[in-house]
């Protein structure tokens, strides 16, 4: 799976964008989004998803259950 940003809760602080080791987070049309094709759940980089760790709003960066689980290759 990848993480996703709940757009209605995101304050657009941009804090998560620079923290992602895979450059999966970007601003699109005024809101921040995670590209599920790039998100590795931070596996192999950090113990904790960095977008979750940095986000000031609880439960805004969450697992997206609609995409398959990420597997380290
Ligand atoms: S979980 Fe990690 S890899 Fe995925 S978007 Fe968040 S910071 Fe980037
Ligand atoms: S850190 Fe949280 S509030 Fe800030 S841009 Fe990212 S998802 Fe939005």
UniProtKB/TrEMBL annotation:
It comes from the Bacteria. Its cofactor is [4Fe-4S] cluster. Gene3D superfamilies: 3.30.70.20. GO terms for molecular function: 4 iron, 4 sulfur cluster binding; metal ion binding. It holds the Pfam family Fer4_10. The keyword 4Fe-4S applies. The keyword ATP-binding does not apply. Residues 1-30 form the 4Fe-4S ferredoxin-type domain. Keywords: 4Fe-4S, Electron transport, Iron, Iron-sulfur, Metal-binding, Transport. This is Ferredoxin. It comes from Sphingomonas hengshuiensis. The lineage of its organism: Bacteria, Pseudomonadati, Pseudomonadota, Alphaproteobacteria, Sphingomonadales.
